[in-house]
Amino acid sequence: MASAASAARLDFATGEVRALSPAGLARQLAKGSELQSGETVQTGRDGRAQLRFSDGGMLSLQPGSEFRLDDYQFSGQADGSEAGFFSLLKGGLRTITGLIGRSNRDRYKVTTSVATIGIRGTEYTISYLDPETIAVATGEGRIEVCNKAGCVLVSSGEAAVVRGSEEAPKLTDSRPRLDPAQPVTDDLRPPFAAGETQLQTMASGPGYTMVHASNVAGPATQAGVTAQFNNFDLLTRADSAPHSFALTGGTAQASSRDGVIGWGRWSNGVREDGTAIPNFHYVVGKLTPMSELTGLGAGTYTYSLIGGSTPVNTQGVAGSLNTATMQANFGAGTMALTLNLGVTVAGNSYTFTQALAPMTTSQTFAFAALDDGALGTGSASGMFVGTNAQYVGVSYSVTPFNEDAIKGSAALGR
């Protein structure tokens, strides 16, 4: 257990794990490292960490996470001075609360970009689906998830999703997938929340396909891509002769699932000819082999949103991706697809839909006439990714009537 002078100690750390002081000074963390109130823990693409707090609480951080100890106070007993206020800035966590969360609920809170989580139980998880969407689930007890639009109680075995700070949290049937941090081999304690598979990350190299959209180009598909990813699963460069796309600075967002499909957005990028590509949205993955697509046989498959880039219109106004679903009806060598996209920008919400008539089964596809039923139009490029078409990647451009075009990308799974 961590000493009274420290807030927490690392039970184990693997991969890239570091701490940032309130002044921004960085230091590498390892098993046994201590953390102070005010510090931020960051895990890289291959980084995992488990923290043991001085009140007995435990917390497991997933790869690509950023977790800040805003205000942690514990004197060794529940005397009214204790405090456990934290912020999950990105990524995901699983936690079992200690004495602070059990004895004084008002003194414990986790803040995210879109909601705050108050403790009424002992075990829960939080995961970012994109920078403006979180999923939460309770293992034991209850948690209360709140933002300025409302609150929801999430009881044992239940899950909720929060899409932006303007939309109230809602219960959902889909639980966030979080893989446990894996302990180093000389730690004989059982892993925290053991029994799940290890999280895979995106590997740099050839053989990828990318769908993308930006302020200067509509949705497009790029085949034969050699992709470069950093330690946080961010695509930093995509080469597909004679074209190339590269991140040049500014802000960026990225996420992935199972090391199979990745998505994100660059605020600033450049093409091989020097043309700037502001707000470049992408999904990248390796196409499902045709033999597996045709081998699916006749049947209907429904894909739901697992993550996406933040939609941005051509004036730079960011919004939120509310829904994204696709239904694929496969026949004998044919497929019929229906896509639905729901976005909100500048307080206005739109839903664009298009159904494609049966066509020859293909690894990639395009929607050329998305329609919101109110004179809005749009288009999208898509692809099937992973074993047996487990995932779908989509880039899109939609234009509400008399409004600026909205660009984005989405990853869907079944």
Number of helices: 2
Mean pLDDT, all residues = 87
Question: How much strand?
Answer: over 45%
* Rounded Rg: 22 Å
The total tally of domains equals: 2
Reported for the largest beta sheet, the result is: 16 strands, mixed
Characterize the overall form.
Answer: globular
Question: How widely separated are the two ends?
Answer: 42 Å
What does this 3D model show about the protein?
By secondary structure, the chain is mostly beta strands. The protein has 2 domains: 8-172, Jelly Rolls (Sandwich); 205-413, no CATH class. The protein contains 2 helices and 32 strands. The chain has helices at 99-103, 290-295; strands spanning 8-14, 17-20, 26-28, 34-35, 40-43, 48-53, 58-61, 66-73, 83-90, 92-96, 108-111, 116-130, 133-147, 150-155, 159-163, 170-172, 205-214, 217-229, 235-240, 243-257, 261-271, 280-285, 299-308, 312-313, 319-330, 334-345, 348-355, 359-360, 364-371, 377-385, 391-399, 406-413. β12 and β13 (133-147) form a beta hairpin. It holds the Pfam family FecR. Residues 40-143 form the FecR protein domain. This is FecR protein domain-containing protein. Residues 164-190 are annotated as: Disordered.
